[in-house]
Amino acid sequence: MTLTVDEAGLTLADPRAYADDRRLHEALALLRRDSPVHRVEKPGYNPFWAVTRHADVMEVERDHALFLNAPRPMLATAEFDEINRQRQEQGVALRTLVHMDDPDHRVVRAIGADWFRPRAMRALEPRVRELARRYVDRMVELGGECDFAQQVAVHFPLQVILSLLGLPESDYDRMLKLTQELFGGDDDDFQRGTSSEEKVAVLLDFFAYFQKLTEARRENPTDDLASAIANATVDGAPLNDFDTASYYVIVATAGHDTTSATIAGGLQALIEHPDQLDRLRAEPGLMPLAVDEMIRWVTPVKEFMRTASRDCELGGVTIREGESVLLSYPSANRDEEVFGDPFRFDVGRDPNKHLAFGFGVHYCLGAALARIEVRAFFEELLPRLGSIELAGTPESVATTFVGGLKRLPVRYSLV
């Protein structure tokens, strides 16, 4: 059955499409070719313009004064948009860096920036490599067969980011469950419930946890990122409770879920492209390029949205003030105009101008950490790997925002 462009546009608002690569990329390729800035009107959602070409996504990312994060930073139902609007007006809504524009964005981003600079990353790398060894050892303990996504990939980056925050290991399982409920709110296996109220309840649970953490770190500061956030000031005043909790939420969730998706998806790509696995093992110096190819291939962040602050033109289409655009990163990262043979997994791809971390002032704060984690894991795994194959059918999370594999059954031999 051949898709129409309108049907292809509707795909971007269907969480199940992101769990079906073939279906998703068929729709995205059609939009790039025939309607790269395409108006989507789906029942239950406020209208938006789907932006699918790399050049157009870049144009939006570059002009953060024209295209604003607020008030609609990501795709949600119209009902959830309205709930969020009301909570924003009341000052009791999630307000992370993803939700902010300058000048607030610039000031608040600076609070955590030093913790992710190259010097800090070099200091953290030994700990990352130690944890990478621990989780490869865990694969050995699992006896040569496991669900790599759930038993390995989700735990390694989670432990890295929560140790950076200074959270106790006893809280890791709680953070994992809350993160999966937050990003997997449209997935039958992860969602707490289907109503907007139940989705808001997940955020409130995050807030309750992090409010206690803030109180503890303000009373007894420690040398960790949690203390830096809890004791940060803007114009001489501490962040309010919701902005403080929001900062924790973005670090604790985006800081591990995206990386675990890349590690699991990267391993699947190597299994399904054994020539590239052999090449990477023979040429370990390709690992930095391979890491970026895994990130491009998986593209864990599926979209962000921006709202036009005035009338403008994008890709030959007029966008009116107040209208929203959806930036499709999986589409931009398969754009035939930018990537030679974009559906080929190539561990030596160079250049690789992927947009998985965004671009411009909203470029991912944790990009360097993500690259270190992915590189450390595969540099630990590949020299010890005898053989590996799929032991079942991989399954992906149903989502329109952040996600990747939720199951990757594998069979392997390790030394």
Automatic annotation (TrEMBL):
Molecular-function GO terms, alphabetical: cholest-4-en-3-one 26-monooxygenase activity; heme binding; iron ion binding; steroid hydroxylase activity
UniProt cross-references to InterPro entries, sorted A to Z: Cyt_P450, Cyt_P450_B, Cyt_P450_CS, Cyt_P450_sf
Keyword hit for Oxidoreductase: yes
Cross-referenced CDD domains: CYP142-like
Biological process, per Gene Ontology: cholesterol catabolic process
Alphabetical keyword list: Heme, Iron, Metal-binding, Monooxygenase, Oxidoreductase
Signal peptide: none
Domain of life: Bacteria
Membrane-spanning segments: none
Similarity annotation: Belongs to the cytochrome P450 family.
Name of the protein in question: Cytochrome P450
Organism: Actinomadura rubrisoli
Organism lineage string: Bacteria, Bacillati, Actinomycetota, Actinomycetes, Streptosporangiales
